[in-house]
Design brief:
Layout: H1 3-18, H2 21-31, E1 35-36, H3 37-44, H4 48-60, E2 64-67, E3 70-73, H5 75-96, H6 98-102, H7 111-114, E4 124-127, H8 135-145, E5 150-154, H9 159-170, E6 175-180, H10 181-187, H11 192-199, E7 205-210, E8 216-221, E9 225-229, E10 241-245, H12 248-263, E11 266-267
Parallel strand pairs: 5-6, 6-7
Antiparallel strand pairs: 1-3, 2-3, 4-10, 5-8, 7-11, 8-9, 9-10
């Protein structure tokens, strides 16, 4: 059946849940475990007169059940509550950094990662200003400096960053990069070639090459995430604005994105370049 037809047939039911703050809060609270009316009142900041009719409605829908003096989710209610949580998390991730998303090209983020954009709501956006023109770069170097390992995706090259990464490799920090074929062409030239030759035999340095167009700049370490994107409707990478996070959910999101692109790439024999 067409999804719009399903919505038309069941719109009243859908709206009865998603248009009710109290029902959403009850479902999300009970998703964490059973709760008495007093706890539901406290969390929602409402009176018994306001919340009891909402609970009764959820009971009538077979989403909530009474157990003694407490309430719990039914099996069906847990399914609905999980979907509500996913929707709230998604919208939170969008709303938290809406300006960043609307001004950048998101085509480098596969659908499964866009669906998990809520994992990034604990992040912050760092932007260069006329007063601090190197804010993003300085913040980026700070997270790299303390990294125990570095995983990156890049479709652009920076001499300063290349030197810094080479130093980290020489310090014993494992570095893995996924790059585009265009970047490989640049790495064959100076000043990059010198670093590449020096690192060719290092067990701590690996490069993976993809034939895909990379529209994302990513660095993920054991504790931090840095995400950069191309400007919207432009072929220019926006180095003046990055999303940074040390939130475990965001770091896990970044690591998964790195692994996604690495699986679609082939390892590079660096010594074969020279």
């Amino acid at each position: 059946m067409d999804i719009l037809e399903i919505y038309h047939q069941h719109s009243r039911l859908i709206h009865s849940i998603y248009n009710s703050r109290l029902k959403i809060q009850v479902l999300l609270t009970l998703r964490q475990g059973k709760a008495p009316l007093s706890k539901l009142r406290s969390i929602t900041g409402s009176t018994s007169q306001a919340i009891i009719p909402k609970i009764r409605n959820l009971e009538a829908l077979a989403l909530v059940e009474a157990e003694g003096y407490e309430y719990r989710l039914s099996t069906l209610g847990r399914v609905v509550a999980n979907e509500v949580k996913a929707y709230v998390t998604l919208m939170g991730g969008i709303a938290s950094h809406q300006q960043f998303w609307v001004t950048h090209d998101l085509s480098g983020l596969p659908p499964r990662f866009l669906a998990r954009i809520g994992d990034l709501q604990g992040s912050h956006i760092q932007t260069d200003t006329t007063v601090d023109m190197f804010s993003v770069y300085t913040h980026y170097l700070a997270i790299i400096k303390e990294a125990r390992y570095i995983h990156g995706i890049s479709s652009v090259a920076s001499p300063g960053l290349a030197q810094f990464l080479a130093e980290k490799v020489n310090e014993g920090v494992p570095v893995e990069l996924v790059v585009s074929e265009e970047v490989i062409g640049i790495l064959k030239q100076e000043p990059y070639a010198g670093h590449m030759k020096a690192l060719a035999s290092s067990q701590n340095f690996q490069v993976w090459v993809t034939g895909e167009s990379l529209r994302v700049g990513l660095t993920v370490t054991d504790r931090n995430l840095s995400l950069g994107l191309f400007k919207r409707d432009s072929n220019l990478y926006d180095s003046s604005s990055d999303l940074f996070s040390d939130d475990p959910d965001a770091v896990a999101w970044g690591e998964d994105l790195f692994l996604y692109y690495r699986r679609r790439s082939v390892p590079l024999d660096i010594s074969s370049l020279f």
